[in-house]
Description:
Largest sheet: 2 strands, parallel
Helix content: 40-55%
Shape: elongated
CATH architecture of the largest domain: Orthogonal Bundle
Structural class: mainly alpha
Amino acid sequence: MDHAPMLRTEKGKPDTTARHVLQALAEHARSDGTNAHPSVLRIQYRTGYDRTTVQRALRRLEAGGLIARDGVTEGRTRWKLAMHLCRPATDWTDLEREEDDFRAAAAERKRRSRSKGVTHSESVTVTGGEGVTVTDAESVTADVTHSTPSRHALKVRPSRTERRPNHQQPSDNQLPKDSSSPAAQADEPTEQLHLEAFGAFWLTYPKRKAKEEARKAWIAAIERGADPQHIVDAAKNYAHERAGQDPKYTKYPATWLNKGCYDDEPDPQPGPHLRAVSGGYQPYRNPVNEDAYDEPFF
């Protein structure tokens, strides 16, 4: 079997138009590539190209040796396809190399994009910034000069601890903390405390599904002002309500948090059921004289 290079346009790109026309001819040819005589109109219908485009593609295929004239049938040119030709193995190797180059270039662009968007600094320089509050300063670099409390060159969002009311802050005996040192506990970020409280919530909630979504919903609930201990207590009550129930109807933790179900009133507990006891008529026993029976009054 002989090898033939793939047809290319004048600009060196693959001649996809000629390939499409060759495919239409192959659909009308015999298994040995002979007796292919579709009309130009039929090829237009098959490929969607106009008449001039089809005729030019046929000439390029003929010039490339992929088809040859083999007579005329009913006024239509009969073509014979060169079935002994195939593409060289280097075409596949070239495609693989182009694919590897494309992936490497894409990875390099992604790496550069990430490196431009991240800046790390261990120090903070603030000059004349009386109205600037900086938290988590190990990742912030600021140089503020001649600033006023109402307008700053760098605006830093206050931490969650500063934005929340005092009565909503979790107490020391409510949430688990790192007991390595009191100073470390005092400087521990508020968000870390919230995530530790989320661990207690996760262990308490009756359905542990979609943990990452639940964690996001937990942080959102805390930012809305919900008390972590209140949420954990409500989760315990909900777990008690769902005990012995069909778990299919138990809400996912993220859904339960996003809908604020921790503020719902607990369902009333069912009282004891009274049922009749059969045994027939029992006469009333006189408490004074147990041997005497009185008829009940109706």
